[in-house]
Design goal:
heterodimer; A: alpha/beta; 5-stranded mixed β-sheet; B: 6-stranded mixed β-sheet; 4-stranded antiparallel β-sheet
Amino acid sequence: MIRVIAWNELHRRLRDRSVLIGCLAAPLLMAAVLGLSFAGGASATPVHIGVSGASPQMLTAALDASQLPKNVTVTTLPSQQSVKNAVASGTLDGGVAVLPSQLRLHTLLIPIVDPGATHTPGFDVVTKGTSPLGEEYAESVAAGISSVMYASRVPHMEATEAADPATVAVNSEEVGHGGKVNLNFFAPNIAVVFLFIGSGLGMRSLLMERSAGTLARITAAPVRPTQIVLGKLLAIFLTGMATIFVIWAVTTYGFGADWGNLLGVLLMAIGATAAMCGIGVFLTSLAKTEQQAFGITLLVGLFLALVGGNLLPSGSLPDAFQVIALGTPNGWALVGFGRLDQLGEPASSIIGPFVILLIIAVVAGGLAMTRVRRMVEP
Amino acid sequence: MEQAMLRCEDLRKSYGDREAVKGVTFAIAERECYGLLGPNGAGKTTTISMLCGLILPDQGEVTVDGFAGGTLEAKAVVGYVPQDLALYPDLSAVENLTFFGQLYGLGGKELQGRIGETLELVGLADRGKDRIGTYSGGMKRRANMAAGLLHRPKLLVLDEPTVGVDPQSRNSILETVGRLGIAVLYTTHYMEEAARLCDRIGIIDDGRLIAEGTAESLIGTHGGKDKVHLSCDEASLDVLSAACLELHNVHNVHEHEGNLELTTDHGPAVLSAVVAVATKHGVDLTGVEVRTPNLEDVFLTLTGKELRD
């Protein structure tokens, strides 16, 4: 019966083309825009980045993870002030000062979740408004350092002052395709946003069915309320998976993005879809009308995207928001995808984010089930 | 009633402070067509929502074919045709019926066969593959009914199925219901439909079932006498009134807005005598109307208000 209800949902959404628009056309368009924006070829202009507070060994590992293009030169500097002076004078296009005394294990996640965070505790990303590329690569270096530190779990051991300035070799395997790093990051990032919007809009269908009278007809049939709700959820989950698959396929095969380990990507897709569906459906269940559902989905979606790091650097937001980022499903989805595509880690590395996403899915989905059942129960 | 297909006992339902249904009790036998007649807001839809398991009664019991109301077993034998069009406009009639048939456990060739038969029954066999959204209002109503009939229910519940329907489709719906041969609960505020279709009628008002019986018995008990309305020039009213009062079977004559209203047991039989006395007294009748009581009068008598109020 669940399959019958799910298929009816998909059938109708295919017929009215909302699935084609939401799960195929829009993701396709977005993936194409991302691909053309980030994978169309990197600038050949030399970019100089300075780093203080990190040993050359750790920095080398961090730059391997960051996969910066060949035109980026990274130099170690003795202090935070020297980085600031060099950036201010124009000698450097951007810089990163690692501040070991302020580093905490949990804050290391922030640059990974949100590479745009410029005021993360423990890191000072020094930028100059006239060099957006310098800012971008400095953020990438910070994210790379953070991920290496987090992976080692011993930041205080690795973060040591460098005595003399030195230039660190940059892994140049991705010469000419530096934008892929960004594409790798933004592709799953955007997919997660689509998942949330799609799940919220998908559950509006139940409200529409209620106002159209078809829900009454379904509940008059020998069908359990739980079957009705699970059928709807299954349809939303499948459309979410289709959305993420489209974005993965287009960015991977169309623009050469590398999302990382396939099994890991599949698990993250399942976890992220389930969590975002759970949250989206729960929020929709709070609404009494389709208009309310749309408003709530939009409002919360924007909020999550902002604090979770999908739209704006959370580092530009208050500290409290940066902590909230790690409590959002999209934030954890980005952590998982980031480990796969940014750090090239194996599937086992995303077990933590995957489990957290499943917990979010179960809790939010359970709450949603309780509320949605009220719509269909006598 | 020994073999009741539907039995409702003291059904009550409130929404906040408003008591929508206030202790409704009735039963429907197998193959009986029962009409629930009442104005908008009388409690008809709330009552059938409880019968179909869509809402839980605050009090009272429902039994459908021996099963407790609202259970999956009870729902399986009920065909529910809601007042509003409860079909997906983007899907064809066949696709709609396929989905709703599957909800009742139908599938494969059996389902396809049932869909063909049901569309034939409601006169939509040639439009089955067209989207519901392209149908006329009457066709939509017939398709709506088909979805309730597909699984061959033992009890069909029709909630005002002819509201806003053109006369031709309305007639088609009534004919279809008339030849089903299953127990039918038919709610309407059209007294003609209730009188035409239903073996028995329950009159509901303000959440209470205030009378029940065949149309004839209700009219006989609560409908009052036949009325004959006469119009003539004002100067002749007194003469004609006195003459009519002398006639056999005329119980009462009163003047109303320049006309006379005679109350009689049998209006058509009195009419010829009225014409005769008018001629005899030289009164020129300008208008004559015989009105026999109907369910509208029954409702007026019982509630003091019009059925369509």
